[in-house]
Design a protein that fits this description.
- Helices cover about 35% and strands about 15% of the residues.
- The chain is of the alpha+beta class.
- A 4-stranded antiparallel beta sheet has the order 2-3-1-4, covered by helices on one side.
- β2 and β3 form a beta hairpin.
- α1 packs across α2.
Length: about 180
C-alpha cells in the first residue's frame, strides 16, 4: 500500500484537488452544488477555515483554504465534508457510481475518489500561481472560452476586489503546472 505523506502547517494555506468517484459529472448539477455548499458551511461552523477560492468542475474541484492559527487538521475537514455531501446527496436523489469490490468490502459509498491532492502554499508567489491555476481550470478543460464566463468559480469575487481584470486569462497563466490534475 502506498505511503501518502501530507504536509501539516498550522495556520497554513493549502491548495486542494478533490475528485468524484470514476470522475462522475455531479458537482455542477443543482443538487451537487447545493449539497457541497451545505456540507462546506456545516464544516466551517464546526471547524472554521477560510475558503479563499474555489472552482467546481463537473467531476472535480479545486479549492484554496487557510486554516486558523495552530490548526493543521484539513484531513478531518475533508473527511467530514465528503461524508456530509455523500449523505445529503444520496438522501435527496443523487446516485452513486459502481462500487469496486474493495469499496463494498469496506462499506464505502461510490461518490468520491478516496484520496485528494494537497499542496501547501509556501509564499505569496506560490499562492498566486495556484490561484491562477484554479481560476484558469474551466478554460483548460474546455468548459468555456473565457475565464469570466464560468459560473461556478470565485473569479468574479476576485475581479470585484480588483485582484484580476475581467479580461484576465486570455492565455494560460500557468504553463506546465499539471500536478493539480491528480487522479
Amino acid at each position: 500500500m502506498p505511503n501518502y505523506r501530507r504536509n501539516f502547517v498550522p495556520g497554513g494555506t493549502y491548495f486542494f484537488t478533490v475528485v468524484t468517484h470514476q470522475r462522475r459529472r455531479i458537482l455542477t448539477t443543482d443538487l451537487g452544488r447545493r449539497c457541497l455548499r451545505e456540507a462546506i458551511q456545516l464544516e466551517q461552523a464546526k471547524a472554521p477555515f477560510d475558503l479563499f477560492a474555489i472552482v467546481l468542475l463537473p467531476d472535480h474541484l479545486h479549492a484554496i483554504w487557510t486554516l486558523p492559527p495552530g490548526d493543521a487538521n484539513y484531513p478531518l475537514r475533508w473527511q467530514r465534508i465528503k461524508g456530509e455531501f455523500t449523505r445529503a446527496y444520496l438522501l435527496t436523489g443523487g446516485a452513486e457510481g459502481v462500487p469496486s469490490p474493495s469499496r463494498r468490502k469496506r462499506r464505502e459509498r461510490a461518490v468520491w475518489h478516496r484520496r485528494y491532492w494537497e499542496h501547501t502554499c509556501r509564499d505569496e508567489d506560490d499562492l498566486k500561481r495556484f490561484l491562477d491555476y484554479l481560476h484558469w481550470n474551466p478554460v483548460k478543460h474546455g468548459l468555456v472560452a473565457r475565464v469570466r464566463d464560468y459560473p461556478w468559480s470565485t473569479f468574479q469575487r476576485f475581479v470585484e476586489r480588483g485582484e484580476y481584470e475581467l479580461c484576465w486569462g486570455e492565455c494560460d497563466p500557468c504553463p506546465g503546472l499539471e500536478e493539480p490534475e491528480w487522479e
